[in-house]
Specification:
Helices cover about 60% and strands about 5% of the residues. It has helices at about 20-40, 60-90, 95-120, 135-155; strands at about 5-10, 15, 95.
Length: about 160
């Protein structure tokens, strides 16, 4: 069961028991999100980033531009730092709470961007069908959702 792959230890840190293929997958997708984020430098010019950089003032473009100017650099820096943490610890067997929280943020952001790219909704069938050209991406999306659930479960215990 995936929920047992990350668990809080008696010492208060977290044990990661992720199989090597899952670690490779994570190690592969983290730099992809980093590239998308740094390419657009947090401006949300890429429509796939709209969930990470939502419009604060949809009816007032001037206020929205001002708002983005105030928060975009900080949001981008925090997201990149979380991705750095995941990249640096993807082979770790133990993480402290701060690092696992960074994992949670990064996994959530990966999932949001991929879900936006795939136009996932509540009606989307995530079962893997070989004839679906998005089958592999949908499988990654589903896995990221399960991994996020596992992290939240471990943190809440």
């Amino acid at each position: 069961m995936l929920l047992r792959r990350i668990r809080r230890t008696r010492k208060g840190d977290f044990e990661l028991r992720l199989p090597q293929p899952e670690r490779r997958l994570i190690a592969n997708v983290v730099p992809q999100l980093r590239a998308v984020l740094t390419e657009d430098a947090g401006t949300a010019a890429d429509p796939n980033l709209r969930r990470l950089f939502p419009t604060a003032y949809p009816d007032e473009p001037a206020l929205d531009v001002e708002y983005r100017g105030l928060v975009a650099d900080d949001l981008l820096a925090r997201r990149l730092a979380a991705l750095d943490t995941v990249a640096e610890t993807v082979e770790a067997t133990r993480l402290d709470e701060e690092k696992l929280l960074a994992w949670m943020g990064a996994v959530n952001e990966l999932r949001l961007v991929l879900g936006t790219r795939l136009d996932v909704s509540e009606e989307t069938d995530l079962s893997r069908r070989p004839d679906d050209p998005d089958a592999d991406s949908l499988a990654v999306y589903a896995y990221l959702g399960l991994l996020l659930e596992t992290i939240v479960h471990a943190l809440s215990r």
